[in-house]
């Protein structure tokens, strides 16, 4: 007998026990933002691998689409995460479809013109948009134009997540005290259904803050991560 999961039951977690208490999982149809500490990169890599797991192990048995707006993709970290989950690293990497952008215009085109076609082609249940804001901070792009394009792209992907029944997670790494940044940040946070911030406290201690969620109340939790998580993976990213 085949048991079909309801939309509410289809979800994806980071696979970190302590974080689970603050934020259990991303749900199908959700547009979420993960921002702050560079460990957010590792968290997105974890998601890109975990979505490939069988459903009985908490995954979707699905490929992942990775829109790289900050040149952040790291195959070495992906391979390490895949091994932790008992997957062949090469196979895991082959199921992550990467599109890189080097300008705000390229990233907006990937979001507005390419993404839905890729979802139909690969039948992916997870989309990761890496460093979604940095290219729109480029001074070569007029501020008003950057904001308009950014808002249009965000509106599209937030609606697309629900329409195509996928999870879309955008990462964001705050840079400088730019006036433009605050307008872009406001637009990003307005469209997100879930917002998670990660801050470093001391050494290998991180603070996870659930700042926005459709159901859960805001929550802050301190997490002590060992060498197999924080130090190991951040070291791989910097290597």
What characteristics describe this protein?
single chain; 239 residues; 8 helices; disordered N terminus
Helix content: 40-55%
Count of strand segments: 10
Q: Give the mean pLDDT.
A: 87
From the alpha carbons, calculate the radius of gyration and give it in angstroms.
17 Å
Biggest sheet details: 8 strands, mixed
What is the string of SSEs from the N terminus onward?
A: EHEEHEHHEHEHEHEEEH
**Distinct helical segment count:** 8
CATH top level is Alpha Beta
Instruction: Measure the end-to-end span.
Output: 48 Å
Q: How are the strands ordered across the major sheet?
A: 5-4-6-7-3-8-9-10
List the helices and strands and how they pair.
Layout lengths: L10 E2 L4 H6 L3 E2 L3 E6 L2 H12 L13 E5 L6 H10 L4 H6 L1 E5 L3 H19 L3 E5 L12 H21 L3 E6 L6 H13 L2 E7 L4 E8 L6 E6 L2 H12 L1
Parallel strand pairs: 3-7, 3-8, 4-5, 4-6, 6-7
Antiparallel strand pairs: 1-2, 8-9, 9-10
Your description of this structure?
- The chain has 239 residues and is an alpha/beta fold.
- The protein has a single domain, classed as 3-Layer(aba) Sandwich (Rossmann fold), CATH 3.40.50.300.
- The chain is built from 8 helices and 10 strands.
- The protein has helices spanning 17-22, 39-50, 75-84, 89-94, 104-122, 143-163, 179-191, 227-238; strands spanning 11-12, 26-27, 31-36, 64-68, 96-100, 126-130, 167-172, 194-200, 205-212, 219-224.
- The protein has an 8-stranded mixed sheet, with helices on both faces. Strands 1-2 form a two-stranded antiparallel sheet.
- Helix 2 packs across helix 3, helix 5 runs parallel beside helix 6 and helix 6 runs parallel beside helix 7 (179-191).
- The termini are far apart.
- Residues 1-8 and 230-239 have low confidence and may be disordered.
């Amino acid at each position: 007998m085949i048991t079909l999961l309801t939309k509410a039951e289809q979800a994806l977690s980071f696979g970190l026990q302590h974080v689970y208490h603050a934020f259990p999982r991303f749900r199908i149809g959700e547009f979420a933002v993960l921002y702050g500490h560079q460990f957010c990169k590792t968290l997105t890599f974890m998601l890109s691998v975990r979505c490939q797991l069988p459903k009985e192990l908490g995954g979707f048995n699905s490929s992942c689409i990775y829109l790289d707006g900050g040149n952040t993709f790291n195959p070495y970290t992906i391979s390490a995460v895949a091994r932790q989950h008992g997957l062949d690293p090469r196979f895991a990497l082959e199921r992550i479809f990467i599109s890189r952008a080097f300008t705000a215009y390229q990233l907006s085109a990937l979001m507005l013109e390419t993404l839905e076609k890729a979802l139909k082609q690969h039948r992916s249940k997870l989309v990761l948009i890496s460093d979604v804001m940095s290219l729109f901070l480029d001074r070569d792009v007029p501020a008003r134009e950057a904001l308009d394009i950014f808002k249009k792209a965000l509106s599209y992907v937030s609606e697309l997540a629900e329409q195509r029944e996928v999870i879309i997670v955008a990462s964001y790494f705050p840079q400088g005290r730019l006036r433009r940044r605050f307008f872009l940040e406001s637009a990003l946070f307005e469209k997100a259904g879930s917002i998670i911030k990660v801050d470093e406290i001391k050494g290998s201690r991180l603070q996870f803050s659930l700042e926005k969620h459709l159901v859960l109340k805001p929550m802050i939790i301190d997490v002590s991560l060992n060498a197999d998580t924080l130090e190991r993976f951040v070291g791989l990213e910097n290597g």
